[in-house]
Amino acid sequence: MTLLKMQVADGVSGNEKIGRYEIDLRIKDMIRDGVDAEVIYPTTGLLTPRLNDRDLELASCEVYNDWVLKHFEAHPDIFVPAAILPVCSIEDAVAELKRCVSLGYRTAMIPGRLPTEVPKYNSDAWDALWEVAASAKLPLILHSGTGGETTMERGFGAALINYMLSGRGPIDSVAYLVASGALDRFPDLTVATMECGSSYLNYLAEILDEIYPAHIHYVRPKLSRKPSEIIAQQVKAAFSHDRSAVENRHVLGHQTLMFATDYPHLEGSFPYSREVIAENFRGIAISEQEKADILGLTAAKLFGIANPKVLTDA
């Protein structure tokens, strides 16, 4: 998302979110917060892998994917809808992704946690899906809170613990995709995590780089590149509040980082995104080009947003 210097919309004050459902109102909130473009995710559509009904899951994904693309078709450089895929079977996911590619989708979501009856992401049975996405240069998104059960704890601290655990699914999935060689086999495949922060990338890269040569005799399959190189080249991570990711961007390269407002969630940065950005960058020696990439140009390239604007204020 590209953050620009814009004026506050007339007649709106405080942190009221007027654009949850209506496109015109959504654009007003974007202008107010200085946001150029957004990737659009579903609401209850995030829960389709929990339906436990193949016909219902297939129909839900098809209906949603047909509707949301048409709903935003007049604003292709402002909104990028993400398709949702049925994962009741890998064959179903492949078929729907092929259909979405033919419809003109620029990205699609896969669950952060898979249903227990589906092979995990380290299974080569998923190669058919990776091949479709890689051939179409279509990035796959792992969003927190998707897939299997995400409310795991009750009692004291549960609100914080469950939110933290909801982000573990996508993070663990990235580890599966790197360690299993899936990303190595499909170098044109890019995956991006949403609402998990970005600092985890450095931890994951360093621990996998340590383990890989130490346990090389047990590792299957062998990788053609270091795990950190695979992550640097093929994984992106969106964040709102993650100053440490910006401070340590040189570990993997700043091109792995993308700022996101997480609108309209409570933990998102709206309507204070400029202040949040300033805090993320405060006291850090960073070039204007790096800022522009993190705040929007990397995402614009990844999601095929034409004529992205360059950062003018943060």
Write up what this structure looks like:
The longest helix is centred in the N-terminal third of the chain and has 18 residues, at 54-71. The strands form two sheets. The protein has a six-stranded parallel sheet with strand order 3-4-5-6-7-8. A two-stranded parallel sheet has the order 1-2. By secondary structure, it is α/β, with parallel strands linked by helices. The chain has helices spanning 23-33, 54-71, 90-103, 127-136, 158-166, 168-179, 182-185, 200-214, 227-234, 243-247, 273-281, 288-302; strands at residues 38-40, 79-81, 83-84, 108-113, 140-147, 191-194, 235-239, 257-259.
Tell me the layout of helices and strands.
Elements (H helix, E strand, L loop, with lengths): L22 H11 L4 E3 L13 H18 L7 E3 L1 E2 L5 H14 L4 E6 L13 H10 L3 E8 L10 H9 L1 H12 L2 H4 L5 E4 L5 H15 L12 H8 E5 L3 H5 L9 E3 L13 H9 L6 H15 L12
Parallel strand pairs: 1-2, 3-4, 4-5, 5-6, 6-7, 7-8
Question: Keywords for this structure?
Answer:
314 residues, alpha/beta, 6-stranded parallel sheet, two-stranded parallel ribbon, 12 helices, globular
